[in-house]
């Protein structure tokens, strides 16, 4: 589900929980972002389709992922269930990171940050990243992407010096 979140433009956990087949059509996924009410509609990648197929087979109700126990849950019950599940998932993610000897604090929510950072490193305009994430305020994305790592900055500087006409003649 973490990988699914990444491939689905950093979809929040509660939105993943609430997905049904109604949210999918053709090769697309469409839903309202719970936090902002922004409608998101995007093309699904092959990895996402494979994950959807796998989980859809094991679902016991209309939800794609078999984590919400019944279809008549209130918003409050869904939030409580989400919180409980994240209390199990986030420690498991940390254990997986320890097994692969990566010393990073990871939670389900980092899939969203990772997606945004990946796009930034691919030189995607920040306003486009903000729209993909369903933000209603541009300052929100700036909080995600407020600083480039030193290695990225070093590469930018190297590229400027290597590609500058001024320094090629010196």
CATH superfamily: Intergrase catalytic core
Please work out how many helical segments DSSP would assign. Answer: 9
**Sheet with the most strands?**
3 strands, antiparallel
Query: What is the strand tally?
Result: 3
State the strand order across the main sheet: 1-2-3
Give a quick summary of the entry.
This protein is mainly alpha-helical and 170 residues long.
How would you portray this structure in words?
The chain starts with a helix and ends with a helix. The chain is globular and about 65 Å long. β2 and β3 (39-43) form a beta hairpin. α6 (126-132) packs across α7. The chain has helices at 2-7, 13-17, 46-58, 75-99, 110-121, 126-132, 138-144, 150-163, 165-168, and strands at 24-25, 28-32, 39-43. It has one domain (2-168): hpI Integrase, Chain A, CATH 1.10.443.10. The protein has 9 helices and 3 strands; from the N terminus they run ααβββααααααα.
């Amino acid at each position: 589900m973490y990988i699914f979140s990444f491939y689905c433009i950093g979809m929040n956990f509660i939105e993943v929980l609430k997905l049904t087949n109604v949210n999918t059509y053709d090769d697309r996924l469409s839903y309202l972002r719970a936090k902002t009410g922004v409608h998101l509609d995007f093309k699904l990648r092959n990895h996402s389709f494979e994950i959807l197929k796998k989980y859809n087979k094991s679902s016991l109700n209309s939800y794609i992922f078999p984590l919400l126990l019944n279809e008549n849950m209130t918003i409050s019950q869904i939030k409580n269930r989400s919180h409980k599940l994240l209390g199990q998932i986030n420690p498991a993610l940390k254990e997986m990171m320890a097994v692969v000897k990566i010393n990073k604090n990871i939670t389900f929510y980092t899939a969203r940050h990772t997606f945004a950072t990946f796009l930034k490193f691919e030189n995607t305009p920040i306003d486009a990243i903000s729209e993909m994430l369903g933000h209603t305020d541009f300052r929100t994305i700036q909080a995600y992407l407020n600083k480039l790592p030193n290695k990225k900055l070093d590469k930018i500087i190297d590229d400027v010096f290597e590609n500058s006409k001024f320094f090629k003649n010196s």
